[in-house]
Fold N-acetylglucosamine-induced protein 1.
Amino acid sequence: MTIQPKVKTGGPFTWSQIQQIVNANQLESFARSEEQYYKYQNFKHDLSTNGITINDHVLKDELQWKPNDIRHQSSTPSPPEYSTSQPQDLIFYNPDDIKIIYNKFPYYFEDSVVHLCIWSKLTIPNDVNSTVGDISPLTKQIIERYLQKTFIDKGISKQDLVWFRNWSSLQSIRSVSHIHVLLHNVDNSFITKLIGTSGTTLTLDDYKELLE
């Protein structure tokens, strides 16, 4: 049986459609254009021909990280999701853990939309209660505080930013945690300054407030 490619037909996703999809958590609706889809597939095929996985490519060529840089939360057994007594387990806290880059193969969005990926050496934990590998409400609050400090506090309108982390069942790259950030009608010079940086990471005071 031939598997049909998942492509977006009839024009790109508009900003209004993007907002609706993310707000409804219908992330499976996103797709690339036919051209983008086949570029991505051909790129992965070329990597595979050379014995390189897409995970290895992202780590080495796009992030300049080593495999042993990637780590999980270390607190055991049965830790709370986050604790200020375990700062090594706090996502979006250590600047060395985070890097912002462009999505090399974005979904099919209108030209006014920029698609960034924010990568984390520290694994962003799944919600233990999610059957599809979504993240918990607390993790979402933590990420939103980071995005507030990195984007909103720097002048980006809340209406011009949406973000999501694909559920585990939707991820094409699972070994390195990342979130997707979509920006609408944002000055390119602002984005350029962020590329390759960690953004504005959280402090212990941020976490203490969030964990109250």
In short: Residues 34-49 form the longest helix (16 residues). The beta strands are 98-102, 113-120, 161-164, 177-184. The first strand starts at residue 98 and ends at 102. The radius of gyration is 17 Å.
